[in-house]
UniProtKB/TrEMBL annotation:
EC numbers: 7.1.1.-
Superkingdom in the source lineage: Bacteria
Membrane topology note: Peripheral membrane protein
Classification via Gene3D superfamilies: Cytochrome-c3 Hydrogenase, chain B (1.10.645.10)
Keyword NAD: yes
Protein name: NADH-quinone oxidoreductase subunit D
Lineage: Bacteria, Bacillati, Actinomycetota, Actinomycetes, Geodermatophilales
């Protein structure tokens, strides 16, 4: 066995073993990459995160300080890598839904919808009207849940712990509804290419209407708790400033852009799933700071409640999956004593009545359907901004490429612009006002 070292890098080496060459690489580059100061000035380099209650997820910030003033802010990502985009290339088109739902894990239904709309565009099909309405319904419920987490974590990071406990308490009410509809509280895999996994269960519409009756009061309670609070205002106003010019230059979208005064919402400017037929406003602010982003998100919760009520009113009986049996998977599901599975009628048909149906079911489940060759880009409005799916097909039963324009990843670029020149305490408020979800950043 021989060992070799690179004289230029005392921290890296390799050795030959019976299994081949093994490389050993360690740290030790702090002074070279982050700690060196070419001008010899005194400064303090602070490493905040990636495991820290104020970094809003598994995010690392390297801050240069002069006193308590931030002179440089660097964002270090990559601590939550999942390889989701690459994994989708090794699964069939339907299985891809179970991967993408885990990217932005606070807005899973938006990932499912964006991905499925892209696949449907390649297929040249449209989900039935009832399925489209239910997609809007569950996505707006999910938007409320996501904004409640943004509010709760904002409160925790600012020291307003009652805001955190109340935010998560109200979110549980929304997750109860999503669990009733999809069977899961997160990572639902409910929206499928061609439609939905299953229809709304009996009683769910009534439960959503009950939710709509009392939830506006809960939103008003948040305003009573936080909006008029002098400390809350002092911590947020004029903090994390980024105007429209800065947002556009950095590609920042969502509540950050709307808080700078630009009413850019893809549900209005590039409608999908029939959003152009719903009556709702696009909340904006003119402050370009963390305070404006907080107010925009609070207003968006009320607008989502309006959209949910309209979706319930327009629900018409009908299928929730396309009629094409070469695409429609799963078959009609039912809840049995052993959990959710194919309905008894479908099992009886494929097991006792039609060998052709059994063969077709087997091939559809194991191999999947083929998608015509081509590439598409489909953007939708997630709670954090423009969520875009660039999907490429080579004509096979698996995606050739799935690349996601995740808003958290793009919006994080604004961290330095929002933080440098401000106080270290204001970095916390700026990051919280961006509301990044690291599952989407490190996908």
């Amino acid at each position: 066995m021989s060992t070799t070292y690179d004289p230029a890098d005392p921290y890296a080496g390799s050795r030959e073993t019976t299994e081949g060459r093994v490389f050993t690489v360690t740290g030790g580059d702090w002074d070279v990459t982050l700690g060196a100061d070419p001008h010899g000035e005194e400064r303090l380099v602070v490493n905040m995160g990636p495991q820290h209650p104020s970094t809003h997820g598994v995010l690392r910030l390297v801050l240069d300080l002069e006193g308590e003033t931030v002179t440089k802010a660097r964002v270090v990502i990559g601590y939550l890598h999942t390889g989701i985009e690459k994994n989708t290339e090794y699964r069939n088109w339907v299985q891809g839904t179970t991967f993408v739902t885990r990217m932005d894990y606070l807005a899973p239904l938006f990932n499912e919808a964006g991905y499925c709309l892209a696949v449907e565009k390649l297929l040249g099909v449209e989900a039935p009207p009832r399925a489209q309405t239910i997609r809007v319904l569950v996505m707006e419920l999910n938007r409320i849940a996501s904004h409640l987490v943004a509010l709760a974590t904002f409160g925790m990071e600012m020291g307003a712990l009652t805001g955190m406990t109340n935010g998560f308490r109200e979110r549980e009410l929304v997750l109860d509804l999503l669990e009733e509809i999809t069977g899961l509280r997160m990572n639902h895999a409910y929206i499928r290419p061609g439609g939905l996994a299953q229809d709304l269960p009996e009683g769910s519409v009534e439960h959503i209407r009950e939710f709509l009756e009392f939830f506006p009061k809960r939103v008003a309670d948040f305003h009573r708790l936080l909006t008029g609070q002098p400390i809350w205002q002092r911590r947020l106003k004029d903090v994390g400033y980024l105007d429209v010019t800065g947002c556009v230059a950095l590609g920042v979208t969502g509540p950050i852009l709307r808080a700078a005064g630009l009413p850019w919402d893809l549900r209005k400017v590039e409608p999908y799933l029939g959003y152009q037929t719903y009556d709702f406003e696009v909340p904006t602010a003119d402050t370009s700071d963390a305070w404006g982003r907080y107010l925009v998100r609070m207003s968006e919760v009320n607008e989502s409640l309006k959209i949910i009520e309209q979706a319930l009113d327009r629900l018409e009986p009908g299928p929730v999956m396309v009629e094409d049996k070469k695409i429609a998977w799963p078959a009609q599901l039912s809840l049995g004593p052993d959990g959710l599975g194919n309905s008894h009628e479908h099992v009886a048909h494929i097991m006792g009545q039609s060998m052709e149906a059994l063969i077709h079911h087997f091939k559809l489940v194991t191999e999947g359907f083929r998608v015509p060759a081509g590439q598409v880009y489909v953007p939708i409005e997630s709670p954090r901004g423009e969520l875009g799916y660039h999907v490429v097909s080579d004509g096979s039963t698996r995606p050739w490429r799935v690349h996601v324009r995740d808003p958290s990843f793009v919006n994080l670029q604004a961290t330095a612009a929002m933080s440098e020149g401000g106080m270290i305490a204001d970095v916390i408020a700026a990051i919280a006002s961006i509301d990044p979800v690291m599952g989407g950043v490190d996908r």
